[in-house]
Amino acid sequence: MRSKFIKGFLVIAVFYSCSENKLEESAKVAQYLHLSHTRTNANPKLDLLVEKLDYTQFDLLWLGGDLAQLTSADDATMQHVDSIFDLSNKNTLWALGNHDYTDLKRVSEFTKKPRYYSQHQNGITTVVLDTQDSFSNIYREQKAFLFAILDTIQRSSHLVLLHHKLIWMYNHPELEKRAKAISNAEIGTCSYCINPNNFNEEVYPKLVELEKRGIEVICIGGDIGFNSKEFEYETKDGIYFLASGIHSDEPNNKALLFKHQLADRKLTWKFLPLENL
């Protein structure tokens, strides 16, 4: 009799333990932070609030570039930026901007990562692009790398393209005329401009194919902050173009915070004041 009682008790205990584990799993929410254009006008300092943030509260840190005035100009500046963002951490992903581009060898020494790469975590595939290379175009090796991912991605619920320049504004019937009011740089031929590029002609159709297969696509740019601090646009195909960036030490600076419900694979986002993070 005692044996049956113990067995019954164990079954009930295991049942409740499994139920609690399932509830805990379904309640899990991961947080991802996108932050960009954190530079001041003097190395190595960054925006004061950016330097004081506790980044351990975020599961992923997505950096949109232009971290310091000349981020990779010397070891001291890189060390300072590294002390804030932990650049070699696998959960810190950095899309280079024009202010980061002085010494690419120094960048790789600190990050232990290439200029463009991908990462899969929690069902999300993030691809970090280098939009400073090839004047805003996704060409040659980088194009082959990106297209190989887009052609083979299967199990991800989301694809995030992380980049600096707002390359999707060029040659877009609605967004191109808004570029001057949104982006830090205008459409043009300078090194920091949104240059004429192949995003909408070659890359975007591939993203539409993914969207049709049920993979949500989000493109996040980082070259804003001077003219605007947040941007969100949903295309007719259901693809999101987002951007966030700050103007150092100004009021009302914002970052882009994502919350990921892991059980139902739902990703939501909102722009929050830096002081509220």
Query: What is the number of helical segments per DSSP (H or I, 4+ residues)?
Result: 7
Number of DSSP strand runs: 11
Biggest sheet statistics: 6 strands, mixed
Task: State the end-to-end distance.
Answer: 58 Å
Mean pLDDT across every amino acid position: 92
Share of residues in helices = 25-40%
Task: Give the class from helix and strand content and strand pairing.
Answer: alpha/beta
Strand order of the largest sheet: 4-5-6-7-9-8
Radius of gyration: 21 Å
Strand-residue fraction?
Answer: 15-25%
What string, H for helix and E for strand, traces the elements in order? HEHEHEHEEHEHHEEEEE
Shape: globular
Low-confidence stretches: 1-24
Please tell me about this protein's structure.
The protein is globular, with a radius of gyration of 21 Å. With about 280 residues, the protein is an alpha/beta fold. It has helices spanning about 1-25, 50, 75-85, 105-110, 140-150, 180, 200-210, and strands spanning about 30-35, 60-65, 90-95, 115-120, 125-130, 160, 215-220, 230-235, 240-245, 255-260, 265-275. The strands form two sheets. Strands 4-5-6-7-9-8 form a six-stranded mixed beta sheet, covered by helices on one side. Strands 3-2-1-10-11 form a five-stranded mixed beta sheet, with no helix packed on it. Helix 5 (about 140-150) links the parallel strand 5 and strand 6 (about 160).
